[in-house]
Design brief:
Layout: E1 2-6, H1 11-22, E2 26-31, E3 43-45, H2 54-57, E4 66-69, H3 81-100, E5 103-107, H4 119-132, E6 138-143, E7 146-147, H5 152-161, E8 165-169, E9 175-176, E10 179-180, H6 181-193, E11 201-204, E12 210-211, H7 212-223, E13 229-233, H8 235-245, H9 255-263, H10 274-280, H11 296-326, H12 329-338, H13 343-366, H14 370-390, H15 405-418
Parallel strand pairs: 1-2, 1-4, 2-3, 4-5, 5-6, 6-11, 7-10, 8-13
Antiparallel strand pairs: 9-12
């Protein structure tokens, strides 16, 4: 058997391609661009959304026995993208597969229907109706929420699971039935390699239905993260937030995705797991096993790094303001004199220090870079060494003006070593 996996750079497509090859199936990938490291003779570069006629597909499908269509988008970059990618191109693909006698597995989604309330569900549902109406070997699989370590949504959910307090839309009402992408991929492999007649439709879901808050709790338990409080974001606030989030082109949180989340409270995003488990031939992975303790630090760091950056930036900005505008200059000059700064240089040095503090704070907020953390280490280390030499009494101060530099220096060292490089030449 030779299989073509379309959308093979996405979460589902990539794992299906890998699982097919691991099972000894001759499988090729297809996507807009061939990923680095993929063999050219096992990859087809194509613009899926432009292939809306069966004649365009026929030469591409020569030599294949089956096709898996895993193409999907959660939001439109341009008007009509849902229809092009979820209906028009798949319908043309199905027509070509029917002519050639190819087996098809179409990755759809629970809740899809031609008369659904959202463009995502409607376009997916229209493709389902076309495929199921053809006289061919085909299965529509409908997953619920799909988990994969490298999936963008899974990374987001692991991060949310490590927050101590958070508010989510319909957190305790919306129902999902998460399935691990490895289980989903194995189901596809079983469907393609079986000699039996394929089921026409199959809900590919995890073993348990749960609320979004429950899903986060399972991820939290798997990572052995501390307990958290998950609150429901009021619907009016959630709708405003969705409209604001949609202004960012990369955001998956849009009014339409919010509507799908709210509608899933009626169970439309859940199903009986027994048929999928029967195809799989083994127990489905439980969501509590999806994430492990090794992922906890990375998940927490994904928001913790930003918190540390903002906190340190505010420290510098407040210090700059207090040094120049709020603290008596006479007292500051006395400290500078104790450090050996001549009287004529004391005001300029104080001004330069305040400007430097303000500049660091602004840069941290607007253009944080790895080198900036190294510069702060040098600056705070220099301050600490100078005051230790000339004003050692600060070490004995009950408010610890120098003692507090120790954890600050440790944080700066951590941020310097953990921050990514933005340029090749950056140290």
């Amino acid at each position: 058997m030779r299989v073509l996996v379309i959308g093979a750079t996405g979460l589902v497509g990539a794992h299906v391609l890998q699982a097919l090859r691991a099972a000894g199936v001759d499988a090729d990938g297809a996507s807009r661009r061939r990923p680095t490291g993929a063999a050219a003779h096992h990859w087809i570069e194509l613009d899926f959304g432009s292939l809306t006629a069966a004649q365009q597909w026929l030469p591409l499908l020569q030599g294949f026995d089956a096709v898996v269509n895993a193409v999907g988008i959660i939001r439109e970059a341009r008007a009509g993208d849902f229809d092009r990618l979820h209906r028009a191109a798949p319908v043309a693909l199905f027509a070509a597969c029917e002519q050639l006698g190819l087996r098809v597995v179409q990755v759809s989604a629970l809740g899809s229907h031609p008369q659904a309330t959202t463009g995502y569900w409607r376009s997916k549902g229209a493709a389902e109706v076309d495929l199921l109406g053809r006289r061919m070997d085909a299965t529509v699989i409908r997953p619920s929420l799909v988990y994969g370590d490298d999936g963008a949504s899974s990374v987001l959910f692991r991060m949310l699971a490590t927050l101590p307090v958070l508010m989510l839309p319909a957190a305790h009402r919306a129902l999902v039935q998460p399935i691990h992408v490895a289980d989903l991929a194995d189901v596809v492999v079983r469907l393609l390699t079986t000699q039996a007649t394929l089921p026409r439709e199959l809900a590919v879901v995890g073993p348990r239905a749960m609320t979004m808050a429950g899903y986060l709790a399972d991820l939290r338990r798997g990572m052995q993260a501390p307990a958290a409080l998950v609150l429901s974001l009021p619907a009016p606030v959630a709708r405003v937030a969705a409209h604001l989030a949609a202004l960012a082109p990369s955001s998956a949180f849009t009014p339409e995705s919010l509507l799908m989340l709210e509608r899933s409270a009626d169970g439309s995003n859940t199903a009986d797991a027994a048929p999928a488990q029967a195809v799989l031939g083994r127990p489905l992975r439980d969501p509590v096993t999806f994430a492990g303790p090794a992922q906890r630090v990375t998940a927490a760091w994904s928001w913790g790094a930003s918190v540390v950056t903002v906190a340190i930036a505010l420290m510098w900005l407040i210090t700059a303001y207090v040094s120049w505008f709020a603290w008596p200059h006479a007292e500051s000059r006395a400290w500078l004199a104790a450090c050996g700064v001549p009287p004529a240089w004391q005001e300029p040095v104080l001004l330069a220090a305040s400007v430097t503090d303000a500049a660091i704070g602004v840069l941290l907020l607007l253009r944080p870079r790895r080198w900036l953390w190294a510069a702060q280490l040098v600056l705070v280390g220099g301050y600490t060494a100078m005051l230790s030499a000339f004003l050692p009494g600060f070490w004995l101060h009950p408010f610890g003006p120098l003692t507090k530099n120790l954890p600050v220096l440790a944080l700066m060292l951590l941020m310097w070593r953990a921050s990514p490089r933005h340029h090749q030449g950056e140290k």
